[in-house]
Amino acid sequence: MVTNIALTLRDRLLRGLACAALNPGLRSVLIFDATPISLRIAADTTAQFLRLATRRNVALVTLGAAETDDDLWGRFTLKFQNEPFEWQSGLLTSEDDLRVVVIPDLTQLSLSAARACVALMGTEVAHLERQGQHQVWKPNLCWIAGCATENVGMVSPHLLDRFALRLSGLVEQSSDRTNAILTWLDQSSTESSQISLLPEVQAQFEAALQCYPTVTEAGRDRVLDYFDALEGLMRREIALMRLAIATTKLDGIAQVGARQVDLAAEMIGLQEIVGPSEMSTLPVPEITESEPQPEIEEDVAELSSTFDLVKNETESTIQESVYQSDNVDFAEQPFTLPVLIQPYPEDIEPVQREAASLQLPVRRFQSAAKARGIAVGTEPATTPHDLAWVDTLLEAAKWQKIRRDLQPLESAKRLSPALILSLTDLRKYRRASVAEQMLVLVMDHTCLRDCNWRETLLPYLTWAYVERTSVCLVQVGAALSDLQATKLAQIHPEELRASKTIERSILVPRINAGLESERGRATPLAHGLDLALHTLRHALQHGRSTIQQAVLIVISDGRGNVPLAASRTGKITAPVNRQGVEDALQVAQAIRGLDRVKAIVLDPQPRQYPDLPLELAKALGAKVVKIPPLETWEVDS
Question: What's the superkingdom here (predicted)?
Answer without folding.
Answer: Bacteria
